[in-house]
Design a protein that fits this description.
The protein has 9 helices and 11 strands. By secondary structure, it is α/β, with parallel strands linked by helices. It starts with 7 loop residues before the first strand and ends in a 7-residue tail after the last helix.
């Protein structure tokens, strides 16, 4: 195989995972597309990793090693160097503790014929053996808008399972660099590509990459041996004759589980909506009754005010009659020599 015939370049960043790295690279080398290269991007690798990679390079000429000292953060800038050294236009990514199904490269190469940034149907393996999704269709502008929203910290595109054309990467002109604090390395880089007007994304219809994230489901406390044991079980599934079919079944089961959860959530929301509707109707009825009571009170107040005004008029008339009577009595008494008045 000549360098000119290489159809895909798979970048595998690594630092200290010597137990899982051979399994990850093993699935990259078992692709149905054989015309590929694997570029191991060393970020200050440990001695055990150095030995593992040297053995892989000696065993398969498709494996290359970019050995660099420990860089800032995860040595992201070395990924740019690896892209520059790649012999193909199709740049793939694989973490050193994840796995690729045999048709992963073939599926994404087909998508790259009409797009410049693609991914496998995205998700991850839970420790109980089930799958969950990072669901997003990269052809949907709404999905991209969510990942670009500065108010959100949301990313549905991982390192593993993603590929882009080198020509598009170079067109954007914003290479891999050290990830700022508070950002995810993949999200930080992908946003640069998503913003470009030439971006054309697509997502595969099936999951051809298995992610077993360290920071998930309690794996943070696992020993290297536990990580290797789990990955080896999945490796045996991936390289088996029915590996993709079994993963497809797990994806379908996860979809049914998510559908059931969505239906339950919808039922709960509907129940809550119905309860709120009843409470709103009761509140509206109470408002109507209160308004009616206020109207009655206003009517009673007006009637009382009218009655008070009438009483005041009667009182004034009585006072006037009394005044006139007192005046007559005073005149009569004055004529008789008296002075008393009616009190």
């Amino acid at each position: 195989m000549t360098l000119a015939s290489i159809r895909a370049s798979i970048l595998v960043p690594t630092h200290d995972k010597h137990t899982t790295l051979p399994l990850a690279i093993g699935t990259a080398l078992r692709q149905s597309v054989e015309e590929l290269e694997v570029i191991v991007v060393g970020d200050g690798v440990t001695d055990p990793v150095q030995s593992v990679v040297e053995e892989l390079v000696a065993t398969d000429p498709r494996v290359r090693f970019l050995d660099r000292p420990k860089g800032a953060h995860h040595g992201e800038s070395y990924r740019h160097e690896a892209i520059e050294a790649a012999e193909s236009d199709a740049i793939f990514y694989l973490c050193d503790d994840d796995l690729l199904l045999p048709d992963h490269v073939a599926d994404l190469l087909a998508l790259l014929e009409d797009h410049n940034f693609v991914q496998s149907f995205n998700g991850y393996v839970r420790t109980d053996g089930e799958l969950d999704f990072y669901a997003a269709d990269l052809a949907d502008p709404a999905a991209i808008e969510l990942m670009l929203d500065p108010e959100l910290r949301h990313c549905s595109v991982s390192i593993t399972g993603t590929a882009h054309s080198r020509a598009f990467y170079e067109t954007v002109g914003e290479p891999w660099d050290t990830t700022p604090s508070g950002e995810w390395a993949d999200h930080w880089q992908w946003k640069k590509l998503f913003r470009h007007p030439a971006f054309r994304g697509a997502t595969s219809a099936r999951m051809t990459a298995l992610q077993l994230p360290t920071t998930n489901s309690g794996r943070e406390s696992w020993t290297p041996q536990q990580r290797e044991d789990e990955l080896r079980r999945w490796y045996d599934l991936v390289v088996g004759p029915d590996g993709q079919a079994r993963v497809d079944d797990l994806v379908a089961r996860a979809a049914r589980r998510e559908l059931a959860a969505d239906r339950l959530e919808l039922a709960v929301l509907r129940h809550g909506f119905e309860t709120l509707t009843r409470e709103l109707d009761a509140a509206r009825a109470a408002v109507v009754e209160l308004r009616s009571a206020l109207d009655r009170a206003d009517e009673e107040k007006l009637a009382g005010q009218a009655e008070l005004a009438a009483s005041q008029r009667r009182l004034r008339r009585a006072e006037e009659r009394l005044r006139l009577k007192n005046e007559r009595i005073a005149v009569l008494r004055a004529a008789r020599g008296g002075s008393s008045a009616v009190e």
